[in-house]
């Protein structure tokens, strides 16, 4: 009986092995094909933006090859970077994004720690609830939010509408739930014995958080930071609704409102502004990517 | 350094009772091992001593003070975990000094203590490495170092060697014993490995289903088990349990194993068991080393019988032989040169001076 099954298993296994390596080769070919396809697909817009940003308005409107620059010029860049208005948008965006990242982290880290580790009544439900709030789109929220802010402004007399700083209070409604959620995941992956060891070593909850959890979950924290920054930097709907004066605008809204005059599109400057606007997140990604990928938990426990 | 006492300690999770009223006194400097199968409540007991689990009922005392509501950090204990639980972002030295730094010890003293512990554990060269650069055994040493530098009242070990391979486990077992001989800190050690328990402990606490089955020195547990569970749990290969009954035969007491096999009891044993009812269902407990090959001149209390071996396992210094007595599998230990072979008949000798008689229904050793 057993000999029979061995005889049968022999050839089948060989065939399987051969087909596995062939499967792998084809899988790799297909993945490269689609990766290249998607890379081209996603790189066309930024390349087109770069080409257009180097052209003068005259060349853009001329009927020449749109994929080639015949008379490259940096005039768009010079004009934008010397315009107080554009620098104002840039400044508003920067300050808002940085403050939002800080506020988000100050709320999300302790919240995630509490939800992941301090088992209290309803903590699991609360954790799910946090994530559910993220699922409500901002396009549904902005009208009630506007009403809330208007009411608060009316009662307190504090100017909130058409002020850039109000965005610092509004953006966390988008960033905090998501950041809390992913950090709950990161914190939960830290072995329970690590905080027990810290507890026995004499650490308080706060010390366990600051001296063990934050350093160990640093890749997760950086991922959350990148997310919060990107969301705040690229947010369009809220600033469009809540700010109207030129000096209160952020970059994405500023570019579209000031560089499009009626039906006149200043394409060269729009593309330049968009490229310059995309630069900060790009730089942040480039620098933090290694950190983000590097696993720091290796060696904590037998794994 | 301090003694530890548990008084009617109970731990209940919802409707499951993990620990059912444990009383235990651990004296200063003592090395106590809690041993038992998984789910017997040994780890829960240790975690309650550490303060990582609340106790449902009863009292835990460290150094005479009830610590039921004292948080772990104020109990002055140190714990070594099965998976080491080293802080991955800190070096060995930082790992070991973390507790002292939290308590704001002077830098010079921290350095002195870490250096001393590293020397004791032979990890001086590794002091600047991160945990991921260490092997399993080295990590376990660091985990022990972290406990030693604190100079706590009590050491708690939660299956510290379970993640190591067999060879390293034996080596680290000796290391742990050496360290305890040097620092003499009261130690509570949890393991499911009875060999670890026997080799390390001053006293072993055998636990089963949330209760303490027996507390005693390794030799007491081995030679005078109180229950069938302890008799079967301690010792490898395990003790044989053969159904039997007592008979009066020509004015003497004899024990009948099968229709064919019955042995007269040695006088000391006969006196001990004489009062037992003859109809009672009993178990003969006999360790494999007391079932050996037969000789021409057998001592008093040693009885021989013939059997056919099922399987033999040569171990080098001895050969384990397996055979059946009316369906009950029995294991014996014979000399490798005694000629034991699979399926072969063999004459074996049973040393009844080392027998145990158990009540089959209650499991109590009589």
How would you describe the overall organization of this protein?
The complex is a heterodimer of chains A (303) and B (366). Chain A has helices at 2-53, 57-61, 75-81, 84-117, 123-134, 138-156, 166-170, 172-188, 192-201, 205-216, 218-234, 237-242, 251-259, 267-293; strands at 260-261, 264-265. Chain A has 303 residues and is an all-alpha fold. In chain A, a hairpin with a 2-residue loop joins strand 1 and strand 2 (264-265). In chain A, helix 1 (2-53) packs antiparallel against helix 14 (267-293) and helix 11 (218-234) runs antiparallel to helix 14. The longest helix of chain A is centred in the first third of the chain and has 52 residues, at 2-53. Residues 1-11 and 295-303 of chain A have low confidence and may be disordered. Chain B is of the alpha+beta class and 366 residues long. Chain B has helices spanning 42-50, 92-102, 107-121, 136-149, 166-183, 194-200, 218-223, 228-233, 267-273; strands spanning 4-13, 16-26, 31-35, 57-62, 65-66, 77-80, 154-158, 186-191, 203-208, 211-216, 240-249, 252-256, 262-264, 282-286, 291-293, 302-308, 311-314, 319-325, 328-334, 345-351, 356-359. In chain B, 41% of the residues are buried. The chains are: A mainly alpha (303), B alpha+beta (366). At the A-B interface, helix 9 and helix 10 of A face strand 6, helix 2 and helix 4 of B.
Radius of gyration of chain A, CA atoms, in whole angstroms: 26 Å
Instruction: Give average pLDDT of chain A, whole number.
Output: 84
Spans of chain A with pLDDT under 50 lasting ≥5 residues?
Answer: 1-11, 295-303
Proportion of residues in β-strands of chain B? 25-35%
Quote the average pLDDT of chain B: 90
Annotation field: number of helices of chain B: 9
């Amino acid at each position: 009986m057993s000999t029979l099954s061995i005889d049968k298993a022999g050839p089948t296994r060989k065939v399987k092995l051969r087909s596995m390596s062939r499967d792998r080769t084809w899988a790799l070919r297909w993945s490269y094909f689609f990766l290249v396809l998607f890379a081209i697909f996603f790189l066309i817009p930024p390349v087109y933006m770069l080409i257009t940003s180097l052209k003068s308005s005259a060349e853009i409107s001329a009927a020449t090859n749109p994929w080639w620059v015949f008379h490259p010029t940096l005039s768009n860049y010079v004009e934008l970077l010397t315009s107080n208005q554009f620098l104002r948008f840039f400044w508003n965006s920067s300050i808002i994004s940085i403050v939002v990242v800080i506020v988000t982290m100050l709320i999300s880290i302790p919240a995630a720690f509490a939800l992941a580790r301090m088992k209290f009544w309803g903590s699991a439900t609360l954790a799910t609830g946090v994530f559910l709030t993220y699922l409500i789109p901002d396009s549904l929220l902005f009208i009630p939010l506007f009403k809330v802010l208007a009411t608060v402004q009316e009662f307190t007399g504090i100017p909130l509408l058409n002020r850039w700083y109000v965005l610092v209070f509004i953006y966390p409604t988008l960033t905090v739930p998501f950041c809390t959620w992913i950090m709950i995941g990161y914190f939960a992956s830290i072995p329970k014995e690590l905080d027990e060891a810290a507890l026995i070593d004499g650490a308080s909850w706060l010390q366990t958080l600051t001296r063990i959890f934050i350093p160990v979950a640093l890749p997760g924290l950086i991922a959350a930071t990148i997310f919060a920054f990107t969301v705040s930097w690229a947010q369009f709907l809220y600033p469009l609704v809540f700010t109207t004066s030129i000096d209160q605008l952020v970059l994405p809204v500023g570019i579209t409102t000031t560089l499009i005059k009626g039906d006149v599109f200043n394409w060269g400057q729009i593309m330049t502004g968009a490229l310059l606007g995309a630069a900060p997140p790009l730089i942040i990604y480039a620098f933090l990517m290694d950190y983000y990928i590097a696993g720091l938990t290796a060696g904590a426990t037998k794994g | 350094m301090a003694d530890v006492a548990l008084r009617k300690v109970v731990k209940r999770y919802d409707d499951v009772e993990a620990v059912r009223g444990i009383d235990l006194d651990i004296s200063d400097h003592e090395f106590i091992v809690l041993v038992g199968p998984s789910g017997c409540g040994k780890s829960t007991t240790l975690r309650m001593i550490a303060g990582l689990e609340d106790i449902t009922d009863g009292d835990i005392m460290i150094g005479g003070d009830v610590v039921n509501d004292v948080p772990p950090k104020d109990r002055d204990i140190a714990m070594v975990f099965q998976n080491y639980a080293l802080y991955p972002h800190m070096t060995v030295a930082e790992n070991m000094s973390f507790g002292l730094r939290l308590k704001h010890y002077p830098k010079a003293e921290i350095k002195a203590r870490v250096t001393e512990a590293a020397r004791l554990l032979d990890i001086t060269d590794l002091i600047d490495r991160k945990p991921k650069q260490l092997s399993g055994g080295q990590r376990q040493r660091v985990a022990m170092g972290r406990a030693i530098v604190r100079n706590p009242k009590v050491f708690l070990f939660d299956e510290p060697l379970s993640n190591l391979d067999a060879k390293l486990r034996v080596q680290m077992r000796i290391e742990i014993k050496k360290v305890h001989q040097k620092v003499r800190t009261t130690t509570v050690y949890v393991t499911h490995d009875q060999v670890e328990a026997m080799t390390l402990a001053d006293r072993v606490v055998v636990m089963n289903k949330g209760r303490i089955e027996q507390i005693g020195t390794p030799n007491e547990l081995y030679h005078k088990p109180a229950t069938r569970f302890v008799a079967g749990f301690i010792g490898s290969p395990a003790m044989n349990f053969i159904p039997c009954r007592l008979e009066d035969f020509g004015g003497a007491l004899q024990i009948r194993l099968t229709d064919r096999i019955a042995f007269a009891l040695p006088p000391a044993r006969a006196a001990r068991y004489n009062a037992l009812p003859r109809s009672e269902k009993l178990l003969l407990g006999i360790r494999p080393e007391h079932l050996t090959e037969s000789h021409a001149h057998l001592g008093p209390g040693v009885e021989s019988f013939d059997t056919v071996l099922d399987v033999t396992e040569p171990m080098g210094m001895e050969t384990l032989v397996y055979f059946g007595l009316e369906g009950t599998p029995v294991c014996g230990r014979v000399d490798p040169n005694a000629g034991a072979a699979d399926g072969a008949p063999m004459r074996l000798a049973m040393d009844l001076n080392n027998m145990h008689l158990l009540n089959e229904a209650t499991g109590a050793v009589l």
